[in-house]
Design goal:
The chain is α+β, with helices and mostly antiparallel strands and about 230 residues long. About 50% of the residues lie in helices and about 5% in strands. It folds into two domains: about 80 residues, Glutaredoxin; about 130 residues, Glutathione S-transferase Yfyf (Class Pi), Chain A, domain 2 (Up-down Bundle), CATH 1.20.1050.10. The chain has a four-stranded mixed β-sheet with strand order 2-1-3-4, with helices on one face. Helix 1 runs parallel beside helix 3, helix 1 runs antiparallel to helix 7 and helix 5 runs antiparallel to helix 6. It binds glutathione.
Length: about 230
């Protein structure tokens, strides 16, 4: 590892993968330079950003040593855990434990991420951009999100597992999961309500990563209306 490398971190805290990475960078004390990139101002689409930061035109992204550009939050988290000397529990070296973390990280793309983000994009971000909102579509997306959250409550968070990949220690899977599950608050939907295991687990993740968790979620909590369900 070399903590002398320089990292520029491009992010907007309204974005759930950016928050996961923000918390990870702070918790692990990996030195980095913050480069806030405002999605609402389309700063992620400028020719300079596309050429010099992330050709996919998304946040988060990092640039290491002015030359190595890396996008995709999961790839970045794995890269940093591998390259910097971070405590093992974040991304365990032991094969079975790592496989369990990886299992969640792969599963979430087409489940937690797909369903929570789709609902928020349609119901919260769409109208902000003047896009039409059809009630039927909103209801379908909400039902898909609820089914996914119920699955997490029932199947991923057993009474024994303190964290989402099982076991007693927090990992990068918890950061990715919790930051995604916070996002529907923007629509007035709090995933903790009616899901006691999920609520307790989210509280554990928050307690375990303070003050960084609250710092990362300040903007989201400011924009979130009161819970309406
Ligand atoms: N799979 C990517 C997703 C990145 C992503 O979708 N970022 C969003 C914010 S959450 C973004 O930059 N959106 C801008 C846009 O699509 O115009 C990751 O995990 O990093």
């Amino acid at each position: 590892m070399s903590n002398r490398r320089s990292i520029r971190f491009y992010y907007d805290l309204i974005s759930q993968p950016c928050r996961a990475l923000f918390i990870f960078l702070h918790q692990t004390k990996i030195p980095h330079q913050k480069c806030p990139t405002a999605l609402r101002k389309w700063e992620h689409t400028t020719p300079d950003f596309l050429r010099n930061v992330n050709r996919f035109g998304k946040v988060p992204a990092i640039v290491e040593d002015d030359s190595f550009r890396l996008a995709e939050s999961i790839a970045i988290l794995r890269y940093l855990a591998r390259e910097y000397s971070v405590p093992d529990h974040w991304y365990p070296r032991e094969s079975h434990r790592r496989a369990r973390v990886d299992e969640y990280l792969e599963w979430q793309h087409s489940n937690t991420r797909a369903h929570c983000a789709s609902y928020v994009r349609y119901v919260w971000r769409g109208p902000l951009r003047g896009e039409p909102l059809e009630q039927k579509t909103a209801e379908r997306l909400r039902a898909e999100m609820i089914a996914c959250l119920d699955f997490i409550e029932t199947n991923l968070l057993s009474e024994r597992a303190r964290f989402i990949a099982g076991g007693r220690e927090i990992s990068i899977a918890d950061l990715v999961a919790a930051c995604e599950i916070e996002q529907p608050k923007l629509t007035g939907y709090d995933a903790r309500v009616g899901r006691p295991r999920l609520a307790a687990w989210m509280q554990r993740v928050r307690d375990r990563t303070q003050p960084d968790y609250d710092e990362a979620h300040k903007i989201l909590n400011k924009h979130a209306p009161r819970v309406t369900h």
